[in-house]
Amino acid sequence: MSKNKKKSRIKTIWAVMYVLMIMGISLIISAFAIVTVNDVFALVSDNDRSVTLVFSEENTSVKEAAVALQDSGIIRYKWAFRLYAGLKGTEGFDSGTFEIKDSYDFGQIIDTFNRVSNYQETV
Question: Contacts from 56-64 at CB under 8 Å and sequence distance 24+?
Answer without folding.
Answer: 56/95, 57/95, 58/94, 58/95, 59/92, 59/93, 59/94, 60/92, 60/93, 60/94, 60/95, 61/91, 61/92, 62/86, 62/90, 62/91, 62/92, 62/93
